[in-house]
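Q&A log
Question type: sequence-to-structure
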Amino acid sequence: PENAAIACGFLCNVIPPLLVNLHDPDSTVRIDATRALNTLATTATGKLKLISEDALPRLLDLVTDPDSDVRRQACIAMISVSSSPVGANGAVDAKVIQAYNNHILQEIPEHQVLMLLALHGAVKTPAGFTVALEDGLQSTLKIMLQKSVHGEVLNSACDVLLALATLKAGKEQAIGIDLVAVLTRLVEAEVSRLEESSDRNSVSVSTAAPTLINASVAEGEDDSIPGITKIEGLEESDLVSPLANACACLAHLFVEISGK
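Response status: OK
Response body:
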């Protein structure tokens, strides 16, 4: 208790000056401040103090900072905050979903991945799920799937969609904006890419997609796919592609369509 009190007192003293430094005209000062806040966000006590000191909206204001490193550190801090239920709820209250949904399409791919990781934690909360649907996050993710050529971005976007597709309202909205067609095209493109880049002919990679979909359906609401690394014709590096998550999303949506 005594150590906790000391830590709490320290955080109360250190966070306000760091928040002031977020607006310093020197980008180096802003980078150092966001990096320090990011470090604080990695602890449970730090998360709570960042929320209570109203630091999260200030970090989200940096989404338009002209310095790329400042934006990067701010995103990493939001990932750390959103990694726990309490932190994720705090991030939702700070409007992380609205802020990132409004700016993610204009960001560079590396930062898009970071924003998607933070969004993934936020949308898994009941409040975050509701906000994501109301703010049209799935429509933004649809655009990303149509326009991005970066595997990590596509994979992370599918990961957020998968979190939203586990509940009926999320499935219905995804079907309504025709995400099934977009995901299907993505799977077909990934299968073609993997086949073109592979010299392994013992089992065609085109068998992987239905195998993954069947595995996902069998698992119901579980977004993990046991045994995926055992699919012959796919190397571990291939699994970084959006193929697995896209197939899992389709599986959830197919279940909803078939039930109507």
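Response note: Confidence is low (pLDDT under 50) at residues 1-8, 200-239.
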